[in-house]
Specification:
The chain contains seven helices and 20 strands. It is of the alpha+beta class.
């Protein structure tokens, strides 16, 4: 009997030590912005509250987007051990960027959403907005200029908007500007469908539109890349220039024959297979403009035909003058 009591005592001591240790470890994780792990977790879809029940503690948070997010992205974080509530410091909130948003809204808007930016990870649309700028450190730049460098600016905007619920499609997350982030107010929709993780920015109180969070094959001009096959011609003496395009004002040429070695490719993204189209075909079908190709990195010479003609005429006159003088 005494041995049994000792075993029960030892077991209780081990339970207390384990409970105290796991409670301490999970508290440390939560202070660092991480979710606790030594517990049973439950999630209420209606309230967006995720609760954690450990051996000696209880904790909870309000989820902003997904139960996979860290505590940095959540709110209403609570931790209680043995019925005593202990605060969770939120030092990580200081990491948020100090930005505001300036928009210009389209009057009498009747147009659908417009693809504003796309890369291999995400697509961003605007609806009834003529412009959307970011103001940071007393400098104002278009949101597009931020996105072209790093699309993480979207997370900074997400942090500063209030999650207002899920649309009745049970996948689209809705956000509103309740904290005066923007000058006119702002609405954001974040899609969470298969192959559709688009973001839509719209004026304040904009309702979900029929074309929001629908599949659109419209990102070719944003995600295309220029691929050039190696030159198999080992004769480097070939310096013949190649005219590959011409319009009314300019002639565009490569320093050597190159056109048939260049293809325009797109990666396999959002459920689409990768593509590869010869540059010759792209130009013939006007899929891309010369300016779009140049911005992407295509190297060529651009000759102003009128100036070239004037220069040639001037050279001809000078030659004729020199001949007459020599005679």
């Amino acid at each position: 009997m005494i041995n049994l009591l000792k075993k029960i005592r030892d077991l209780l001591i081990m339970i207390v030590i384990f409970g105290a240790l796991t409670a301490t470890l999970d508290y440390s994780r939560m202070k660092s912005g991480l979710t606790p792990i030594f517990n049973i977790s439950n999630y209420n879809e209606n309230t967006k509250i995720q609760s954690y029940r450990g051996l000696f503690y209880q904790a909870s948070r309000k989820v902003k987007v997904s139960t996979d997010e860290s505590l940095v992205d959540s709110s209403e974080i609570e931790y209680t051990v043995l019925n005593r509530k202990i605060s969770i410091p939120k030092q990580y909130k200081d990491q948020e960027r100090d930005i505001t948003i300036e928009t210009s809204e389209t009057e009498n808007c009747t147009s659908p959403s417009i693809l504003y930016y796309a890369d291999s990870e995400i697509k961003v649309y605007t609806y009834c907005l003529d412009k959307i700028n970011i103001k940071e450190n007393n400098k104002t730049k278009a949101l597009l200029s931020y996105l072209e460098k790093d699309n993480k600016i979207l997370k900074d905007i997400d942090y500063k908007l209030a999650y207002t619920g899920m649309y009745n499609d049970n996948s689209t997350l809705m956000y509103s500007d309740l904290y005066n982030l923007s000058n006119h107010g702002l609405t954001m929709y974040r899609c969470n469908k298969e192959n559709i993780n688009d973001i839509y920015f719209a004026p304040k109180d904009t309702a979900m539109q029929p074309d929001f969070c629908t599949y659109k094959d419209d990102d070719f001009k944003f995600i295309f890349e220029i691929h050039e096959d190696p030159d198999s011609n080992t004769d480097n003496s070939n310096t013949q220039k190649e005219v590959f395009y011409e319009d009314e004002q300019y002639r565009y040429e490569f320093d050597k024959p190159t056109l048939d070695r260049i293809t325009i490719t797109t990666p396999a993204v959002r459920g689409k297979a990768e593509t590869s189209i010869p540059l010759r075909q792209v130009l013939a079908s006007n899929l891309l403009t010369i300016d779009e190709l140049e911005k992407k990195g295509l190297k060529f010479k651009k000759i102003d035909k009128a100036k070239e003609q004037a220069t040639n005429q001037e050279n001809t006159v000078n030659q004729e003058t020199n001949i007459n003088q020599n005679q």
